[in-house]
Amino acid sequence: MGALSPADVRLASQALAMLLRSLQRGRGGRSFGVCATCALFDRLGPRSFRCGLTGESLSPSDSRKICREHTLPEQDLNPGVGK
């Protein structure tokens, strides 16, 4: 069996992410991710970010750290809607 193509890797990643979100919702769990993937993450400029919950300024390094109040963006709550 050979390596997966980039397209297959992308599809598998999307399927696994959808499965994880479904399991989290089904068990009443919260989402999990880095700040840059949170619905409350504000991009102010190319290297300027802010937490929409706390108002704290975030560096590019901060934006790659785990967000303890992570909230899924709306499009991730309804995967297939608008696509």
Concise account of the structure shown:
The chain is α+β, with helices and mostly antiparallel strands. It has helices spanning 6-26, 74-77; strands at residues 41-45, 48-51, 57-58.
Strand-helix topology:
Elements lengths: L5 H21 L14 E5 L2 E4 L5 E2 L15 H4 L6
Antiparallel strand pairs: 1-2, 2-3
How would you characterize this protein structure?
- This protein has 83 residues and is of the alpha+beta class.
- It has a domain at 33-78: Single Sheet (Ubiquitin Ligase Nedd4, Chain: W), CATH 2.20.70.
- 30% of the residues lie in helices and 13% in strands.
- It has 2 helices and 3 strands.
- The protein has helices spanning 6-26, 74-77, and strands at 41-45, 48-51, 57-58.
- It has a 3-stranded antiparallel β-sheet with strand order 1-2-3, with no helix packed on it.
- Strand 1 (41-45) and strand 2 (48-51) form a beta hairpin.
- The termini are far apart.
- 7% of the residues are buried.
Identify the notable features of this structure and list them briefly.
2 helices, 13% strand, single chain, Ubiquitin Ligase Nedd4, Chain: W, 3 strands, disordered C terminus, 83 residues, alpha+beta
- Widest beta sheet: strand line-up: 1-2-3
Query: Structural class, from helix and strand content?
Result: alpha+beta
Q: What is the fold named in CATH at topology level of the domain at 33-78?
A: Ubiquitin Ligase Nedd4, Chain: W
What's the gyration radius in Å? 15 Å
CATH class category name of the domain at 33-78? Mainly Beta
Helix content: 25-40%
The number of helical segments is: 2
**What proportion strand?**
5-15%
Strand/helix succession: HEEEH
- Taking the alpha carbons of the first and last residues, their distance comes to 32 Å
Low-confidence stretches: 77-83
